[in-house]
Design brief:
115 residues; mainly beta; seven-stranded mixed β-sheet; 0% helix; globular
Length: 115
């Protein structure tokens, strides 16, 4: 009965900012890594950013310097602060939770950046 719920997606103007949140709950064994992936129409899903329980982060080159991933480990929550958004960032963003023995995905939240 693990649940992964994203929020914060929506429409934003080119150059604007948006903050995504993801909360994991249920019968989880300890979470090791949480991350964000995205998928644009007609394209494959790609990794955007990850963060480990110890705080180590990784970003895809295209978002370095613009996006920041962070967590509240006590609340099993991960955030993605997105700044200086551009239309190429338009995609469905998915939250991934890598817990001991299992891996879980949210249903996604749509981010649309318009000019």
């Amino acid at each position: 009965q693990v649940q992964v719920v994203e929020s914060g997606g929506g429409l934003v103007q080119d150059g604007g900012s948006l903050r995504l949140s993801c909360v994991a709950s249920g019968n989880l064994v300890s979470i090791q890594t949480m991350g964000w992936y995205r998928q644009a129409p007609g394209k494959q899903r790609e990794l955007v950013a990850t963060i480990t329980r110890g705080g180590s982060t990784h970003y895809v080159d295209s978002v370095k310097g613009r996006f920041t991933i962070s967590t509240n480990n006590a609340k099993n929550t991960v955030y993605l602060q997105m700044n200086r958004l551009n239309p190429e960032d338009t995609a469905v963003y998915y939250c991934n939770v890598d817990a001991t023995l299992n891996n879980y995905w949210g249903k996604g939240t749509l981010v649309t950046v318009f000019s």
